[in-house]
Amino acid sequence: MANFADAISEAGQGYTSLEAGRTANIVAQHNAWIDEQDAEIAMNIARKNAALEQRKGARIQAEQAVRFGKGGVQADAGSPLLLAAQESVLASLRGSEELRTGAFEARRRKQSAAMHRFRGKAAKKAGKVNFIAGLAEAGADVDEEFGLTGKFNKWRKGKKSKSPKTEKTNVLGGISL
């Protein structure tokens, strides 16, 4: 009866592995979803910050033009024009940098989501394999305990039987192959 108890225990462990794999997959899918949402948020924040930088640059240019005009400086030639052009370029660069940083963060989050999905699928498959292995081992224990292999050979109606060693290695769920 010890083998039968071992068989029940192995079948239970196999089922536990199956459920653990399913649970790990569900958690991984959820984590992947969170990472994808974070990627979208990162891109939206980057777009918002880039637009703010562009507006800030335009505001600084407008302030410069007003100050130059108040001071009687000719704003369409010489250093004032050069300062305005530099500010425009800097505002554009700051906006581009915000977008680049956001895109990098979004890509990192999407790669993390893909890794979560991969790990989840692998855990689910491992759980299935462990479940099947547990059932096979349980079947071998039941077969050994109750001697079902010998009875099965008698039911084959005179067909040539396999060696006991081969039968033990080809057991799946208590049925000899």
Describe the structure.
With 177 residues, this protein is mainly alpha-helical. It has 2 domains: 2-139; 147-177, no CATH class. 85% of the residues lie in helices and 2% in strands. It has 4 helices and 2 strands; from the N terminus they run ααααββ. It has a two-stranded antiparallel ribbon with strand order 1-2. A hairpin with a 2-residue loop joins strand 1 and strand 2. The chain is rod-shaped and about 110 Å long. The model is unreliable at 152-157 and 163-177 (pLDDT under 50).
Nutshell version of this structure?
The protein has 177 residues and is mainly α. The chain has helices spanning 2-70, 79-146, 148-155, 164-169; strands at residues 171-172, 175-176. Strands 1-2 form a two-stranded antiparallel sheet.
Question: What does the secondary structure layout of this molecule look like, with pairings?
Answer:
Elements: H1 2-70, H2 79-146, H3 148-155, H4 164-169, E1 171-172, E2 175-176
Antiparallel strand pairs: 1-2
Helix pairs in contact: 1-2
